[in-house]
Write a structure and sequence with these properties.
single chain, alpha+beta, Butyryl-Coa Dehydrogenase, subunit A, domain 1, Butyryl-CoA Dehydrogenase, subunit A, domain 2, 3 domains, two-stranded antiparallel ribbon, 11 helices, FAD, Pimeloyl-CoA dehydrogenase small subunit
């Protein structure tokens, strides 16, 4: 594949790269992680001021009409800095769901704020026993007098601790695991009946569990018809995560190579030892394979929903998951004991890569999904 960036895409990449490089040194990241928000609100504001939060949206909604490729360019740079801001969750996933399901009034009200960075949104799709099955929804929504009331519990809501709006999947018909009967609602996290339990994730970010007790929600789209949009937008989120993983892998490889060049044993840099050279080559090979699959995922992320799109996205996530975990493990092994210390940034890249491998499905889940698509073809 001859993959060359246009002039505009190259400028976008350089803008994101420069911003991350200037703001996200490791010491600053540690401070952002320890803050109440769990990320840098100033950096989030900068993303909005530079138009990076507006990239995926249409020009009518205040965006730039970017595709999955433009999203990939931003996500890869965020991955290089292991940035903590919920860009994928707010801009790609929440923005995509509102754009696909929302009314004109909802799009105008919500997407304008997301595009400028003034509104940070989160998405609550997972439940305690769902295990990557987004159709396994037990949270319920009932209509009374034209308004909807939600009750249930959602888990691992990344960015939910600071979100101004949270999109919640809830069942309005059918049984648990039925794809039909799932609806999507916009919930104000500060409204009556909504409780958040905030906690830190293993990769230094923050998330929350969401408890709903007759909480009011605003319906997005048609009742009981949201699952197709959830599945489609999850595919766009997977493509974005693949790009982020590639960025994190690239920096982890660079850190490891620099360490092999400088760490000495028996009077010579350990990078002189052939067995370690071979392992470094294997890391780079996995990185390049993951890069190719991330490009594939980005190129078809905005294609129409189809079995072929689903199969290729599953294949991309499977390969990127495997590559990311391999790079993380080798980074730790080749660094030795220093890699396990909290003060060394290599450990944090490894943690983020492991977390990405579990978001929206681990490698076993996507291998099964790919096999199912092949069997149905």
């Amino acid at each position: 594949m001859d993959f060359k960036l246009t002039e505009e895409q190259q400028m976008l990449k350089e803008t994101a790269e420069r911003l991350v490089r200037d703001v996200y040194d490791f010491e600053s990241r540690s401070k952002f992680s320890a803050s109440e928000a769990g990320f840098s609100t100033a950096f989030w504001q900068q993303l909005g001021e530079l138009g990076l939060t507006a990239i995926p949206f249409s020009e009518e909604l205040g965006g730039f009409g970017g595709t999955g490729v433009e999203t990939m360019l931003i996500m890869e740079q965020l991955g290089k800095g292991i940035c903590l801001e919920p860009y994928m969750e707010s801009v790609v996933l929440a923005g995509g769901l509102i754009g696909q399901l929302g009314s004109d009034a909802q799009k105008e009200e919500l997407l304008g704020g997301i595009a400028t960075g003034e509104l940070q949104a989160a998405v609550a799709l997972d439940e305690l026993n769902s295990h990557y099955d987004l159709a396994n929804v037990t949270t319920t929504a009932t209509e009374q007098g034209g308004s909807w009331s939600l009750s249930g519990r959602k888990g691992v809501v990344i960015g939910g601790q600071t979100a101004g709006k949270i999109l919640v999947s809830a069942r309005t018909a059918g049984n648990s695991r039925d794809e039909q009967g799932i609806s999507l609602f916009v919930v104000d996290p500060n409204a009556a009946g909504v409780t958040r339990r905030v906690y830190a994730t293993v990769d230094g970010r923050k998330a929350c569990e969401l408890f709903l007790d007759n909480a009011q929600g605003e319906l997005l789209g048609e009742a009981g018809k949201a699952f197709d949009a959830i599945r489609y937008q999850s595919g766009r989120a997977i493509a974005a995560l693949c790009a982020e993983a590639v960025g994190a892998m690239r920096t982890a490889c660079d850190l490891t190579l620099d360490y092999l060049k400088t760490r000495k044993q028996f009077g010579v840099p350990i990078g002189k030892f052939q067995v370690l050279q071979h392992r470094m080559v294997d890391m780079i090979s996995e990185l390049e394979r993951a890069t190719s699959m991330a490009i594939l995922a980005a190129s078809l992320a905005d294609d129409a929903d189809s079995a072929e799109r689903s199969a290729k996205l599953a294949a991309a996530k499977f390969i990127v998951n495997r590559a990311g975990r391999y790079v993380a493990e080798q980074c730790i092994q080749l660094h030795g004991g220093i890699a396990m210390t909290w003060e060394y940034n290599g450990a944090h890249y490894a943690k983020r890569l492991v977390m990405i491998s579990h978001q929206f499905g681990d490698d076993d889940h996507h291998l099964e999904a790919y096999a199912a698509q092949l069997g149905a073809a």
